[in-house]
Amino acid sequence: MLFKIYTISFLDSIRIPIFTHNLSFYSMTATPLVSIIIPTYNRAHLIGETLDSVLAQTYTNWECIVVDDGSTDNTEEVLKKYCDKEERIKYHHRPINRPKGANSCRNYGFELSKGEYVNWFDSDDLMMRDFIRIKLEAFSNEINLVICSGFIVNEFLKNKKVFELKENPDLFKDYVLWKFQAITDSVIFRRSFLINKNLFLNKIKRGQETEFFSRLFFKLSEKSYKIINIPLFLYRQHQDTKTAKNQEYIKSYKESQAFIAVENLKKSIQLKDKLLINSCFKLLIFYFFRGIENRHYNNSRFILNKLILLLFKSNKRLSIELLSLGNFLLLINKNSYRIEKRFRNYEF
What we know:
Layout: E1 3-10, E2 14-21, E3 34-40, H1 47-55, E4 62-68, H2 75-85, E5 89-93, H3 102-112, E6 117-120, E7 126-127, H4 131-137, E8 145-153, E9 161-163, H5 171-176, E10 187-190, H6 191-194, H7 208-217, E11 225-236, H8 239-247, H9 251-271, H10 274-293, H11 297-311, H12 316-332, H13 337-344
Helix pairs in contact: 7-9, 9-10, 9-11, 10-11, 11-12
């Protein structure tokens, strides 16, 4: 497949390469509605750029549903101006009877949406002009989701770095091992594929798309998805926020990460994949000991109980060791580097 690279002016401040390819253009007689769903919270200073990138799309049959998670800045004022000028942009508040959080907003946006295709998007990221068009061209009757690459940029939209996608991944395995770096913006779904599936889990506070995608990617037929290794969006990383979150032990985040690792371990055991089992096991051991260090005993106990149950059938000796040594450490509320090293060096 041949690709041509063009450069266009974007937001009057940066210049972004736009990719087009030699596939025939999506039939002009078949222009299905695409729903773009954007959760937002206190992003009044950024969401205008995101909406400008939606308005710049070469594919025009879309609706953009913005769901506000209770912003306290002037997000509503910004959105009102866009909605007054463009009827395809729709602004909603998260209902008060729904849990707070981006996942709740994503699910509510899906309920409101009408598109045959659905693409969740973040309120600080930007679409390339052909973001929708190129993705839609990749669909066939068998394809249920299309995954594209993107640029990682800093908060000022500089220092662009492409995260490339493997052309023929073992989708679930490579995603769990983070050898396949799809994020929320990357994936457009056929709506019918999502019907009657659990969408984003409200209890997940960290790694929302990680849980969602690993669940949907598990045992997904290779015929039902398409990889487009073309960067079609800008993924903005806020360095100060990212650094602070990585350094701070936030209990709700660690509980989410432990839950995701447990669920991925279950799936890895079903697949009988030793590399995946080792990876998930070592990650859970890490979370177990960090929980003890930070007096997050409930999370450590949750991890320990799950590991004992999941591993008992295949490895009774390891389960008994976990039962005795893990509960001993929880009893004395004290960490042990020696015991941690013992478990982290274990290979299945």
